[in-house]
Amino acid sequence: MIGAGGVGDAAAKIAVERDFFEAFVVADYDLARARATVAAAVARRPGESRLSAAQVDASDESAVAALAREHRATHVLNAVDPRFVMPIFNGALAAGADYLDMAMSLSRRHPTDPYSRVGVKLGDEQFAQERSWEEAGRLALLGIGVEPGLSDVFARYAADHLFSHIDELGTRDGANLVIRDEHGGEVFAPGFSMWTIIEECLNPPVVWERAREFDEDQGWYTLPPFSEPEVFEFPEGIGPVECVHVEHEEVLLMPRWLDADKVTFKYGLGEEMIGILRTLHTLGLDSTEKVSVKGVEVSPRDVVAAVLPDPATIGPRMEGKTCAGLFVTGVGKGGDKDGQPRSVYLYHVSDNADTMRDYGAQCVVWQTAVNPVVALELLASGTWAGKGILGPEAFDAVPFLELLAAPKPQGYGSPWGMEER
Questions:
Q1: How many beta carbons lie within 10 A of that of residue 227, not counting itself?
Q2: Nearest to 384 by CA among 373, 369, 371, 399
Q3: How far apart are CA 143 and CA 101, in angstroms?
Q4: Does any domain span residue 123?
Q5: Is residue 52 part of a domain?
Q6: Is 153 helix (H, G, I), strand (E, B) or coil?
Q7: Alpha helix (H) ranges present in 71-166?
Q8: Cα–Cα distance between 369 and 174 in angstroms, integer?
Q9: pTM exceeding 0.70
Q10: CA pair distance 93, 164, nearest whole angstrom
Q11: Total tally of structural domains belonging to the chain
Q12: For residue range 84-134, what is the model confidence (pLDDT) as tens digits?
């Protein structure tokens, strides 16, 4: 696993409870951080000796390949931000290892019509190498976090078991999380990487529609950021949250394997976050191009991310729940829903009080981290198998959902829900 930030730290703590692996190497540019993650994970299980720490530069594919070869890794799990997808992806293939990530290679806007047409889409750089992975007999499982990831598993489940025809696969994500300072006042501190939030939310969001499938962009098109706001009712006490279109991997993955008329992703950013993002964009602080500041070359976006609290550290000051889910509409199948209009929300809620108590991890990073570990266990057992470049929706959803929800020690003890709407 490359990356010992918030998600990587949580993944190690989750994985150490399981018996499906022989060795688990936690690698990071900061060796001390990797060692701290290993120490925290090992402390959770007396006598544990399978975890070790290593140093690696995630931007150097040859270093990634050398590390994977040194440890005879069968799988490389990418747990860093999407800037490093391609060197880790390429390094894994060079080492003859399978690969998993939670975010795909970055997009680039259409040069002349960014708010209508797609340019380079999320994952395009990876899918361009599909033949190389197939010929090598290796698997690259893309987008297996929570969103993308669990949302894509929900989509496969809905297509196989709940609907005879799908009008829309609509990922909807919302929360009622609050971060407080030492005096109890609310403060701004994103629960996930601010670098990634800026990337996702200020890029033109992508939508896919079957009606456009045969145009030159194959059904994908873009909108201006924060388009088409809607108030979505989230379960388990979270309540109504305004959601807007955001660029996200589900829209680029689901249409490749599933039949639907439309695929969307909307995220409950909230008025404050939208205002901050608009200001960052106006001031040019969302840029990744380096500028010279008193002789030092720095990226404005890196500075913004650096001055905000590390998402891995804010758990003790966070309260509330986060919900990841998929709202599916169409025509039902089976039982009294057969042939009738149907609307279902499939979801997973993570409560910060629970994840902090049980794992010392805030709920957003824990919810992201649990899914690749479940996937690794299914791959290790042979329940999931494949080669080439695949998304989560290419695999049977039932074993994943059963293992995620089953009580410990049989499963991961993290139930998911379904509401008819």
A1: 15
A2: 399
A3: 5
A4: no
A5: no
A6: helix
A7: 85-94, 124-127, 130-136, 150-157
A8: 18
A9: yes
A10: 38
A11: 1
A12: 999 999 999 999 999 999 999 999 999 999 999 999 999 999 999 999 999
